[in-house]
Specification:
This protein is α/β, with parallel strands linked by helices. 43% of the residues lie in helices and 20% in strands. The protein contains ten helices and 13 strands. A three-stranded parallel beta sheet has the order 3-4-5, with helices on both faces. Strand 7 and strand 8 form a beta hairpin. Helix 1 packs parallel to helix 2 and helix 6 crosses helix 7. The protein starts with a helix and ends with a helix.
Length: 296
Amino acid sequence: MGATAAQWVAEKELGDIVLVDIIDGMPQGKALDLRQAGPVEGFEVAITGTIGYEETAGSDLVIITAGLARNHGMSREDLMQHNTEIVSSVTRAVVGHSPHCIIIVVSNPLDIMTYVAKAVSGFPGNRIIGMAGVLDSARFKTFIAMELNVSVEDVQVLVLGGHGNRMVPLPRYATVGGIPLAQLLPEKKIEQIIDRTRHAGGEIVSLLKRGSAYYAPSASVVQMAETILKDKKRVLPCCVYLEGEYGLHDICFGVPVKLGAGGVEEVFEVSLTGEERELIRHSAREIKENIASLKL
């Protein structure tokens, strides 16, 4: 997924790229291969591959994709302890060489790994962001567009909460060309789409048999990166550290935020029904339980 994200970044010419991996030769080979695509696709950025972090020194933005991939039959929670150790190690190395960077976490289980990076880095909350809501929203939009046979460009949705099965898509805020989704689809069909969205990652894992999704996740994280690097002030759903918003404290959780050069520049609190608030509390409760079991 990291290599695919690097490809999107290179094509958009968002900046010079350093690929880091633990297998010597792998990042160097991918970097050279991607750089040789430049003359064909018309992009020109410096791309370096390395097994160390010295080459990353002074980075403005770091995307952490390191960790074990979720395979068939493996839950996100199964990944937690192994990836806590990996993300902790990577975060320490990143902070040591780029103490002023913004970090976007993609490693799973996403909400927990974002919290790990926040705790280990010591960074303020605006500089640690998890990629989940953009991906979950993209999946929700895709399934709605597929069902209605309309352009995905005209679909707008809002997804809150934890990544995966604990996400909270809000159909009340979903529109197609400005038309409320409830006017276009029956409630039962909307619930089916929401259920498929919640299990979309697992659906891909079961089809692939080995490995997990990487096209949509990498595109999603690069959208966040572009928003930050170009100071676009876009409002996107991201996993961020909350200090009272939505009644939640000391947790990394998916909410709509304004992203810009300062990272998370504002958290937006939307109006929720009693039922929606209960879904949010349930989602947060699972994440808090996992955070409490962390060994940092």
